[in-house]
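TASK: fixed-backbone design
INPUT:
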């Protein structure tokens, strides 16, 4: 009986803590500058970031080059190339689809199903499951990305990465829009 009581108490504490920590994107509706996925992710963007394990130890650092282009019907392609400190290079191409005001979806080769995104004010929240290779194994990890525009050219991203509902890592990324450089002919 004590074991059952302990489990119920633990579940209550977990539910209470998860309720306290959840953020509602509506809290950012009046924050400026306003985040528009198509505006920020058009043209070249540079990114710098770290991955921390669940204890906070930095286990990877990276730089990334992103390039976005959009069609008139609200479909965008965002090419990403990550350069990790251990020499690994990783490419991904997102296909993003704008839906109604503030909502969008995305797919990519290593994304399981469809990512769901929402913007409001200066914030962008994005949730997805990514297949991540670790050694000889692959794991499906849940990403909860929370991004905020600092100014019109700078975006900060904090992501919690979970497996079976347990936080296994965190990702911190800073992104900066770059000037489009056109080749002179």
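OUTPUT:
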């Amino acid at each position: 009986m004590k074991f059952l009581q302990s489990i119920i108490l633990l579940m209550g504490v977990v539910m209470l803590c998860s309720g306290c920590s959840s953020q509602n994107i509506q809290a950012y509706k009046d924050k400026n500058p306003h985040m528009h996925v198509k505006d920020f992710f058009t043209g070249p963007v540079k990114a710098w970031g770290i991955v921390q394990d669940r204890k906070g130890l930095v286990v990877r650092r990276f730089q990334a080059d992103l390039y976005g282009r959009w069609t008139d019907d609200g479909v965008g392609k965002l090419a990403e190339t990550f350069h990790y400190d251990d020499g690994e290079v990783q490419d991904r191409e997102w296909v993003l689809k704008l839906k109604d005001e503030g909502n969008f979806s995305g797919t990519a080769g290593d994304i399981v199903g469809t990512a769901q995104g929402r913007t409001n004010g200066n914030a962008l929240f994005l949730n997805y499951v990514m297949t991540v290779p670790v050694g000889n194994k692959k794991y499906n990890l849940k990403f909860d990305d929370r991004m905020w525009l600092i100014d019109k050219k700078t975006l900060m991203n904090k992501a919690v990465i979970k497996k079976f509902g347990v936080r296994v890592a965190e990702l911190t990324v800073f992104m900066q829009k770059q000037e489009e450089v056109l080749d002179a002919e």
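COMMENT: The first strand starts at residue 43 and ends at 53.
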